[in-house]
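Page 37, continued from 36.
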């Protein structure tokens, strides 16, 4: 009984060369919707490779760590495969390993009033303001 090893499917956009532009790689791995968005993100300083701010033409290599800031949080991606063409999501997913820690869950208390209880009294409004962190005696 001989076991056959799993076939590794290499996407059509994969390169045999040793490096790809960082903006192209981010676009090809579907981190950003367009190549121009990827270039703009790199130019704005939202992308770091191995801890260093880079330019859009910087060449990433297999084994590099790419940090991409999206919506105020960093995505940490390890480069497994070099892509220069956009491929389907399942194929793109094989090109990187996601090392991003889970986002913190923040619970913000919400003041709820009984339905049909009418407008809050002055005392209730001040309590709501205090709960929200406002000083009800300050004038805006």
């Amino acid at each position: 009984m001989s076991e056959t090893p799993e076939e590794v499917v290499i996407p059509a956009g994969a390169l045999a060369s040793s490096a790809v532009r960082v903006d192209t790689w981010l676009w090809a791995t579907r981190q950003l919707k367009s190549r121009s968005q990827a270039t703009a993100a790199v130019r704005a300083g939202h992308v770091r490779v191995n801890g260093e701010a880079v330019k859009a033409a910087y060449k990433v290599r297999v084994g590099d760590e790419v940090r991409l800031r999206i919506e105020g949080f960093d995505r940490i991606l390890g480069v497994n495969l070099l892509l220069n063409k956009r491929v389907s999501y399942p194929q793109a997913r094989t090109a990187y390993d996601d090392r991003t820690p889970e986002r913190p869950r923040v619970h913000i208390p919400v003041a709820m009033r009984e339905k049909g209880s009418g407008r809050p009294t002055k005392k209730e409004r001040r309590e709501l303001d205090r709960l929200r962190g406002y000083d009800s005696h300050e004038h805006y």
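The chain has four helices and seven strands. Flag for discussion at group meeting. Residues 11 and 91 are 6 Å apart (CA to CA).
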